[in-house]
Specification:
six-stranded antiparallel β-barrel, Pdz3 Domain, 32% strand, alpha+beta, Thrombin, subunit H, 12 helices, elongated, 474 residues
Length: 474
């Protein structure tokens, strides 16, 4: 047998041990991965399956919504060739998830799960079934509160979504495609997100990469302490299924709705009365901002809280109640979280100067534009900018709160671009570009400077609001 020196044997042992040490080091992080077993065991009993039988109105409304939605939402909510909507099962039945928030039988879920239902069935974790009463629901926050006839039920603890940060682990329990109590996990991708659904601008959504599919709607989003931080509500998808972008309603928004639903059966929220948009780089330069921030006020509703506070079209809202506004999407949730009658402080930028204003919020209520007819004065301008305008009568001027020499009335809309921009007969033009107009002659003088391809920017007032309307002249 050949003899080897001690130093040679030590070298061989070192080389043999190196790969093993490397593998051990590579495997070490696996020990630190979270184990949600105990969390699921504790939270699972308070998660329920919801099946809503749609009445004739609800079934018809579901079909109308699918037909009227734009392409991205048709795929999102379901259409021929794509999976049905999240929470929408076979025609006439809506399926989703909910969770128990109090031991005496109150259950929280999404409004879209039970919308139009004639009967709601709640299936508990032990497979027992209870008929639920709808206490109330709020479509603007997509929250519904149910009550089942039971006591001493298991409940989920409520957490604080305001402490969530991108990168944190979160967990969902729900019933995707009818598979009760399915568990999925992921991380927070972002907070304060704006929904693609314009009707839900008052919700600062939590974005996650947790796998959410049809049937998960209304289920809890949990932190690693087993506390509810959100309610799973939406997905963004080009296929109708999970693509890694899911949205949850913050639990604070949900519980604000729950409190009002229990007390009054409906949800009320404050309204400022402005139409806003983001400030882009070009607009920031025009307004003298060093970067694109704030909510640009496109229009102000007449006699609204904003109008009474002195907010004008063209202002940029930079802060609301001391909170900076970086993007326009941040403003509606802040306003909607306050009750009608609440006082709110605003910092606005106007003509390069910062101003502090105070608004007393009004109740958010559906409103309709009411056209007011008045006799047509004789003097009109020729067709310019695709519009025929006329002098504004004294009665109409007083009705709109305008002074002498302010505005001209649109008699006819002849241009396609002007019509597509939303201009209508009876609207009053106060300004063309930066130039105020108070007569047909002034309008004619300013308007004739525009030609095909030019962008026309008009300040317009009607029975509802005052705001800017832009279009490209053809």
């Amino acid at each position: 047998m050949k003899a080897y020196s001690p130093s040679f044997l030590m070298l061989v042992l070192t080389l043999l041990a190196a790969p093993l040490t490397g593998r051990a080091e590579q495997a070490a992080p696996l020990v630190n991965l979270p184990d949600f077993t105990r969390l699921v065991e504790q939270a699972g009993p308070a998660v329920v399956n919801i099946e809503a039988t749609l009445g004739e109105r609800g079934d018809r409304q579901a079909r109308v919504e699918e037909e009227e939605l734009p392409e991205i939402f048709r795929r999102f909510f379901g259409q021929p060739g794509f999976p049905p909507a999240p929470g929408r099962g076979p025609r006439g039945v809506s399926q989703g998830t909910g969770f128990i928030i109090s031991a005496d039988g109150y259950v929280l879920t999404n409004h879209h799960v039970i919308d139009g239902a004639s009967e709601i069935l709640v299936r508990m974790a032990d497979r027992s079934e209870l008929k639920a009463e709808l206490v109330g629901s709020d479509p603007l926050s997509d929250i519904a509160l149910l009550k089942v006839p039971a006591k001493n039920l298991p409940t989920l603890a409520l957490g604080d979504s305001r402490s969530l940060k991108p990168g944190q682990w979160v967990l969902a329990i729900g019933s995707p495609f009818g598979f009760d109590h399915s568990v999925t996990a992921g991380i927070v991708s972002g907070v304060g997100r704006r929904s693609l659904d314009p009707s839900q601008q008052y919700v600062p959504f939590i974005q996650t990469d947790v796998a959410i599919n049809r049937g998960n709607s209304g289920g809890p989003l949990l932190n690693t302490s087993g506390e509810v931080v959100g309610i799973n509500s939406q997905i963004f998808s080009n296929s109708g299924g999970y693509m890694g972008v899911s949205f949850a309603i913050p639990i604070e928004v949900a519980m604000n709705a729950v409190r009002q639903l229990r007390e009054t059966g409906k949800v009320v929220r404050g309204q400022l009365g402005v139409r806003i948009q983001d400030v882009d780089r070009e607009l920031a330069g025009e307004l003298g901002l060093d970067r694109p921030v704030g909510a640009y006020v496109v229009s102000v509703e007449n006699d609204s809280a904003a109008a009474k506070a002195g907010i004008r079209p063209g202002d940029v809202i930079l802060a609301f109640n001391g909170q900076d506004i970086a993007r326009s999407a941040q403003l509606p949730p802040l306003v909607g979280a306050l009750a009608p009658g609440a006082r709110a402080s605003l910092e606005v930028l106007r003509e390069g100067k910062r101003r502090n204003l105070v608004a007393v919020l009004e109740a958010l209520e559906p409103s309709e534009l009411v056209a007011t007819a008045e006799p047509t004065p004789a003097q009109t301008a020729p067709d310019l900018l695709g519009l025929v305008v006329e002098e504004l009568g004294a009665a109409r001027r007083a009705e709109l709160g305008l002074g002498a020499g302010e505005g001209v009335r649109i008699a006819r809309v002849t241009g396609l671009a002007a019509r597509q921009a939303g201009l209508n007969p009876g609207d009053v033009i106060l300004q063309v570009g930066r130039q105020k107009v108070g007569s047909v002659a002034e309008f004619r003088e300013v308007a004739k400077a525009y030609g095909p391809g030019d962008e026309v920017r008009l300040l317009v007032r009607n029975a509802r609001s005052t705001g800017f309307v832009s279009f490209i002249l053809r």
